[in-house]
Amino acid sequence: MSITVVISTSIMFTPYFAAQAAGQGAWISVLAAGLIACIPTAAAVAVMAKFPRQSVIQAMPQLLGVFLGKIVSLLYACFFLFFAALAVWRMEAFAIRFLIPDTPQLVIRVIFLLGVAYGALSGSTPLLRTNAYLMPLEILVPILTVILPAARLNFNFLLPLFEQGVKSVINGTVLLLGWFCQVPVVILMFQRHVSDALLQGGGRKAVLGTLVATVTLGLGIIGILAAFGPEQTSTMFYPAFALVRIISVSTFLEHTEVIFVVVWVASIFLATTFYIQAFAESISDILNFKGKSAKVWIMLISIFILTVWPLFFNFSFYVLLSTIRDIGAAAGTAFGGVFPLLLLVRVIIAPPKQKQKKAEPQAELSSSETEGGVFGSEIEDGGEQKS
User: Fold this and answer.
1) Which pTM does this prediction carry?
2) Contact 219, 235 (CB under 8 A)
3) Rounded to an integer, what distance in angstroms lies between the CA atom of residue 307 and that of residue 261?
4) Domains in the chain, start-ordered, CATH in brackets?
């Protein structure tokens, strides 16, 4: 799931931002950001291993105390809702620009959020199972965008290294780090769904997932830079989409952008659904709500907020770009990068007391997603999913 969240929220605009910040060194920034993100990823796994069958929100009272724990949990809830809003905003902007420009923006938003509402109410298990089928395509598409047009790509655009200095590459790395740090965020919320058997070597598996996302995005940006050059890429809002539009496979697959769009829309749908579920779980745990009905109302209220808030603000496309670049990246770094490291320090300094095993089923039942969502879909024995 973490790979899906990172790729879906990064593939569209981050090549444009990275090329502006680092020029032909943008691909180095991607690799550096991904490698750095491995550190908080491992930290998140280590922290949540101390709290089996719990999300980070449920563990906050033991980590930071009741008062401070609720404050930090509320900040995380706001972060989840903010990133859900950014995901919807991305999808709207792309659909209006390329897919259905004559359709009112409100209609696009309502249709998309209706699907998100159904997915969120269905629970985490269907979400994770859907992701298991979609994730290979998310990895395959960027690889194909480099392989298929390889004869027409000019890899000299990637050289010389550090032509604009090391500082520009560092700036690009800082800009991209926030999106890679979504991996620890997914772990903090979804590691509770991983079975005990799969938790063995969980840190290595999580780091491997981060590296897979890094290589996937790195290949995509390498292909973009080799196709258009850093100067042109820095002026293109959607360079990844522009690249797939010029790729064809003989005469039987002349429009590869269709595959790209379908995979990306499905991926951004899953990412939005994850953040809505995380928001509902967080608010429910902060307020100590019990049962499924409370989570249903929280999800519906969050969907309503995401539907109506743009009606009160006349934000332009450029506001979206600046929000993603300036606020989104910083928020991702803070909640996915800094906080997991601080929590790990807290766990190392004062290890939490182990709860008795008889208390574990209660923690598990507190999450409607673990039981298949509000529609009551059953989970097969041993059917816990990888996060």
Assistant:
1) 0.86
2) no
3) 23
4) 2-356 (1.20.1740.10)
